[in-house]
Fold this sequence. Notes:
5 strands, binds coenzyme A, 5-stranded mixed beta sheet
Amino acid sequence: xxxxxxxxxxxxxxxxxxxxxxxxxxxxxxxQLFTPERWPTLYRAWDEYEITExxxxxxxxxxxxxxxxxxVVGFALGAMMQKPQSAWRYGWxxxxxxAPHYAGRGIGGRLVxxxxxxxxxxxxxxxxxxxxxxxxxxxxxxxxxxFGHEVRHIYLSKNFxxxxxxxxxxxxxxxxxxxxxxxxxxxxxVRGNAARAKLQRRRHH
Length: 205
Ligand SMILES: CC(C)(COP(=O)(O)OP(=O)(O)OC[C@H]1O[C@@H](n2cnc3c(N)ncnc32)[C@H](O)[C@@H]1OP(=O)(O)O)[C@@H](O)C(=O)NCCC(=O)NCCS
């Protein structure tokens, strides 16, 4: 079946909960999509910790799209949030990605559909997504999925390089690393000496 954009839909793609063994593949797809060069102002960083943390705390909101052949080609990672001093719960779709080769075939839409159902089943009254404002494709996609009420945020940042606490923390870390290296070297020397002594003893016999 062909879609409006002429690409064939992929009906055999199954959406299921992410498993531990999917993580390397999910990480790899994200690496292709969320590069700092592509989205320099994206305030969240795509790294292994992001996936493992979400999987550890909110695994029911970690979904993958898998082809019939068992290849993971997309993911949706979210979390359930609660506003402070409010009974309102909302679902936050933090990361959504479809491998470039599979884009435009309805997989992103299906991932959003499934994670929406999960949020609702867990008591969410609304859903939040955010993306870089220059990511026009994703904005179009989300609008098409029924998202609106767009609010612009300003993110400010501060580099810690000159912060005294950061400098002290880095120096302590470097000292600890140097101590560890010295310990390893000493133990190698001790082991080397012991081996030499053993060899000499053997020669004397
Ligand atoms: C955004 C993304 C998840 C969409 O997934 P997808 O599988 O390609 O999307 P779908 O095929 O389900 O598209 C559904 C609809 O969204 C719209 N859409 C999707 N991609 C679009 C694009 N590049 N430009 C304009 N509209 C687009 C279309 O209206 C489409 O419906 P149609 O094909 O019937 O016209 C995917 O392109 C992606 O991984 N992008 C990079 C990562 C990213 O920006 N993630 C979102 C922020 S975390």
